[in-house]
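Notes from hallway chat w/ T.B., transcribed later so I don't forget. T.B. wanted the structure written out for a chain they're using in a teaching module, and asked if we could keep both sequence and C-alpha cells in one place. Agreed to drop them here.
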Amino acid sequence: MMLQKFVSAVTLLLVSISVLADLPEQMSGTLLVVSKSDNSVAFIDLASGKTMSTLPTGEGPHELVVSDDGRWAVVSDFVGGNSLTVIDIANRKIARTISFRKYPRPHGIQFLANQAHVAATSGVKNAVVIADIHTGKILKEISTTQTGTHMVAVDRAKSLAYSSNMRSNSIAVLDLNAGKFLKAIDTAQTPEAIRLNGAGSEIWYGANKKGLIKVISSDSGRELAEWTGFKFPYRVLFTQDNSIAVVPDFRQDYVRFFDPQAKQELGTLELGEGAGPQGVILHPNDKTLFLSLNRKHKILAIDIHERKVVAEFKSGPNPDGIGYTPLQFKQ
C-alpha cells in the first residue's frame, strides 16, 4: 500500500512537471481566477502551478478585471451578491466590498483610464455604474435606456462605454464624462460578448441566438465582417498588437482564432467534450492565452500562434473570470 501511494505521488509529480515544461522561459506572475461555485478568487503561481492563496468574494462572482499595474482586482458578484469585491493584490486581501444593492446583478466590468474607477453593468437597472474602488463610492449611474444590459467595453481615449443589451438586441453608446446615453446600435439577436479593437474603431460582438460573431464600425454601426457556426461565442479578446482575435465557444468546446486586419479566420483549437471554455486573458508576452474551463475546473495556457495547449493549472470549481498580475507570492 505504501509503495502504491509512493508510485502515485511520483506519477502525479511527473505529470505536473510535464504540464509546465512547455511554458515559455519568461513566463512568470500570478493568475487570479474566479470560482463561481464557492464564491472565491484563487491566486495561481505560473512558475509552480500552485494555488498560493484563496480569498472570498460576494455571492455568485462572474467577471474579474485587474488594474494596469497589476495591484488591484475587482470582481462582479453577479448572482445574489449585488456587489463589487475589491482585492488588494499586493497584500492578498479584500480591500472592500462596494454595495450594488441599488444596482442589482452587476456583471460586465472594466477599469477606466485613471485606474481608480471602474464601469460595471447592472442587469436589473439596465445601467452602467461608475464606482471608485478606493473609496467605495458610486460616482455615476448612466442608463442604457435598453433592457438586458450585461457586458461592457470601454474606449478609454474617448471616455465612451459600449454595453451589450441582450433583450433589446442592441449596443448602447454612453458618454462617461457627461454621464449620458448617446445612442443605441441595432444588433443581431441576444448580443453578449463585446470588445473594442485596439484603435477603438471596431466593435466585435457575439450574437448568441444564431451563433454569430459580428464586427461593426464603432462610429457608424456599419457591418464589417461576420462569422457563423458558433453556439455560444462567450468572449472576444485581442492580442495587444491586434494581430489575432480569439473567441471561445462555451457550448462547442473550442477556441476560434481570427486575423482582425484581414478579417479572416486562422484556425480552431478543439478542447474536448465538456470543457466549457469561458474567461480569457493574455500574458504580457502577447503569445500566451489563459483560458478558464468552467466544466473541467482548470485553466489552460495556450500558445496563440501555434494554437496548442502548453500547460494547465488546477482551479477552484467552475472558474470563469480570470486576470493576470506580474506580482509573485510565497505561500
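Follow-up for T.B.: The radius of gyration is 19 Å. Might be a good example for the class.
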